[in-house]
Write the structure tokens for this entry.
Amino acid sequence: MKLINSTVPKFLLVGVINTIVGAGLMFLLYNVFHVSYWISSCCNYIAGGIVSYFLNKYFTFKNQKKSIKQIILFIINLALCYFIAYFLAKKIIYFAFSDFSVKILDNISMFCGMILYTGLNYFGQRFIVFKYDSQAEAQITEEKNV
């Protein structure tokens, strides 16, 4: 199994849609409505997560499996990727650019967090949440042909 395959461009296209929805909301909440860093970035991933689940499940990974376990894994994956990416981004940016204002540091951290999150999230969705199950897929194909 190749680490990078044809799902990457589809995942990135879904990511563009998620970015328009989620990041637009995040930067609007933070910069216009002065909502905190954590609430603004969290709202990004709640809104984007809903869009991401359906588009990645059916479009990117062509997964037809119906299970609550998959939804729970998706939520856990999003939450872990979110906290790891945004925590690391904030720590690194605040350390590297300590002379800037908090507002600038938070905006740079949110941008870097988005990039880290994308990579972590792709691998989590591809190899855990929507993992291709060749045996189950073969059974579904066989049932359709009967």
About this structure: DSSP finds five helices and no strands in the chain. Confidence is low (pLDDT under 50) at residues 134-141. The radius of gyration is 17 Å. The longest helix spans residues 68-96.
